[in-house]
Amino acid sequence: MAAQYGAHEVMELHEVLTDTVDGINQFELYRPYAKDPQLQSIMDRHIQFMVQEYNNLVNALNQQAMATGGTGYRTPRTAAGMSPTYGLNNPAPQTPNTSPNEMNDQDVASGMLGCHKSSATMRMVATQEIANPQLRRMVQQCAVNSSEMAYETFQYMNQKGYYQVPTMKDMTTNTVISTYQPAQMPMATQQQQAQQPYQ
Questions:
Q1: What is the pTM of this model?
Q2: Which letter, b or e, does each residue of 97-107 get, where b requires 16 or more Cβ atoms within 10 Å of its Cβ?
Q3: What is the DSSP letter of 99?
Q4: CB 71 within 8 A of CB 52
């Protein structure tokens, strides 16, 4: 017998699961076009993780497994310690391909990045409508996982020069950053904290 779920959470979970299926299918379509062994390795790891995450959610929904916080995606150590390269270095002009035969590693990585970014956003929005606390935590972890896989893909793209990070002049950056200063605690909050006994 299926668990009792609210209408909103069922529809949000339907969207999350459909997005996961679409993502796996999209990566499978891209896979033959990835030529760089490093990109192939990243893609294979992501596909394997997305399938595992999909199965965990399906099992939790059908109460075939205890819903926990979900498994976290772990970026390999070699990628985890990388620092991004900032600045533009003669970026190549971008135009859409006119044929699948023109697909290259940059196209594949860009498609992967877009998929993960979209999934991270959609999953985090979905958590706002999921009433079951265990399922909500699982979907929150799914959002974090998508974000981590997006960042790993970004790191690869940045390393290869496919995703350059533009910067502003130091003076402009410093002016924007220094605009924000620490806030004082509102008086009502200070008084309320003063009245609470020490724990």
A1: 0.85
A2: eeeeeebebbb
A3: S
A4: yes
